[in-house]
Design brief:
CATH superfamily of the largest domain: Alanine racemase
Largest sheet: 9 strands, mixed
Bound molecules: pyridoxal-5'-phosphate
CATH topology of the largest domain: TIM Barrel
CATH architecture of the largest domain: Alpha-Beta Barrel
Structural class: alpha/beta
Number of helices: 12
Helix content: 25-40%
Number of strands: 21
Oligomer: single chain
Strand content: 25-35%
Radius of gyration: 23 Å
């Protein structure tokens, strides 16, 4: 899959746009996304299914910016949401409500009612009490709810413990061992259509094996449920495909993964669904920032930039690695080993540690690569820092799709 970043005349470009041009008008810190990189990945998923009935439902929590949702909606994507707010965003962006699936362990009654009224595709339920509540609310509204139980297949994923979800000890899903009983008891709920099975075993998976293992468990379950008379029509395998954050890291190819998935499913009359988040948007985005200062404390060299953990939390939260690229490449300057840190008053506020990187100086622009997923969405106003602007690039064109927050935005809704 091609990378949207490249150096032209030693200036870093995303698609055909020079990053210093964007910084001049949009300011820093600023998230910048390549529309074509996102579309290219979406089409890789969509095409690989061939004539297998399927739906690709982009996982909104990876990046819920309206412009990205609109881009994917136009390309024919469905959406995987985990809150009422995400449903609101999808609808605001012009997404098709009938291809929205609602996941999450803690859906509130208000959120369920909102989704029932909008007639989304289905609910992925994570407990028996949730099935009970959805049925009761659907009855009150005179609606039917299509549901799948989210299965916890007890598959180990070898990813960061914070983003692994498919083991029995995790809060997600219902243990596959007892799930048939759950479907049986749910038969009594008159307003539910039990038509699916779903799972999502973790994120940033650098092998598709655990996903295919989970698929095998789910396919066997589909057979057992069908034998009991449940009309199971769809199987949703969730998201989770990883991306190569570190140089030399290998991620599974989207099309190979989907092809292997399809070959296991064959002609069972199932619609296959997937919920990719990271693998659609991570590589398409960067966080552009400016070097404020350089300093040395003892043996340690620091590069202080104008973006911080409130803008990009992943390094602080997961010790995640993001490449740091100078916008103007000048090999004569050599390299340094440094911590790249932001202005937030926390020792945990860093974007890179002990990093061998270009010898950047105050005033230089740097790009933090592969920041399109779980970047802006995890940003906050900590230290009363306005959240960054967002820019969408397509070919030579680009536009600001989210204004940088102002100081007034910081106090909206507050009273003295
Ligand atoms: C987070 C999440 C996804 C997306 O995961 P990625 O690793 O970003 O692909 C899909 N489905 C559910 C239910 C999720 O919670």
């Amino acid at each position: 899959m091609e990378n949207p970043l490249s150096y032209r005349d030693n200036v870093l470009h995303i698609e055909e746009v020079a990053l210093d041009t964007v910084a001049r008008r949009a300011g820093t810190p600023c998230y910048i996304y390549s529309a074509n990189a996102i579309l290219c990945r979406f089409r890789a998923y969509d095409k690989a299914f061939g004539d297998q009935a399927h739906k690709v439902c982009y996982s909104v929590k990876a990046n819920g910016s309206l412009s990205l949702l609109a881009l994917l909606a136009t390309a024919g994507s469905g959406f995987d949401i985990v809150s009422g707010g995400e449903l609101f965003r999808v609808l605001r962006a012009g997404g098709d409500r009938s291809s929205v699936v609602f996941s999450g362990v803690g859906k509130t009654a208000e959120e369920i009612e909102y989704a029932l009224e909008r007639e989304i595709h289905s609910f992925h339920c994570e407990s028996e009490s949730e099935l009970f509540l959805i049925d009761a609310l659907a009855a009150r509204l005179g609606k039917r709810a299509r549901v799948a139980v989210r299965i916890n297949p007890d598959v180990d994923t070898a990813t960061h413990p914070y983003i692994s979800t498919g083991l029995r000890q995790h809060k997600f899903g219902i243990d596959i061992a007892g799930v048939e009983g759950v479907y049986e008891r749910a038969r009594a709920h008159r307003n539910l259509d039990l038509e699916g099975v779903s799972c999502h075993i973790g994120s940033q998976l650098l092998s598709s094996e655990p996903l295919l293992e989970a698929l095998d468990h789910l396919l066997a379950l589909v057979e057992r449920l069908r034998a009991k008379g449940f009309p199971i029509r769809y199987l949703d395998l969730g998201g989770g495909l990883g991306v190569p954050y570190k140089p030399g890291e290998q991620a599974p190819s989207i099309s190979d993964y989907i092809a292997r998935m399809c070959s296991r499913v064959g002609g069972r009359g199932l619609t296959l669904m997937v919920e990719p988040g990271r693998s659609l948007v991570a590589e398409a985005g960067i966080l552009l920032c400016r070097v404020l200062y350089r300093k040395r404390n003892g043996d340690k060299e620091f590069v202080i930039v104008d973006a911080a953990m409130n803008d990009l939390l992943r390094p602080s939260l997961y010790a995640a690695h993001h490449e740091i690229l100078p916008v103007r490449r000048d090999d004569r300057r050599g390299t340094i080993q440094a911590d790249v840190v932001g202005p937030v008053c926390e020792t945990g506020d860093f974007l890179a540690r002990d990093r061998q990187m270009a010898n950047v100086l105050p005033g230089d622009l740097v790009a933090i690569a592969m920041a399109g997923a779980y970047g802006f969405v995890l940003s906050s106003n900590y230290n009363a820092r306005p959240r960054a602007a967002e820019v969408l690039v397509a070919g030579k064109g680009w536009r600001i799709v989210r204004q940088r927050e102002s100081y007034e935005d910081l106090v909206r809704g507050e009273v003295v």
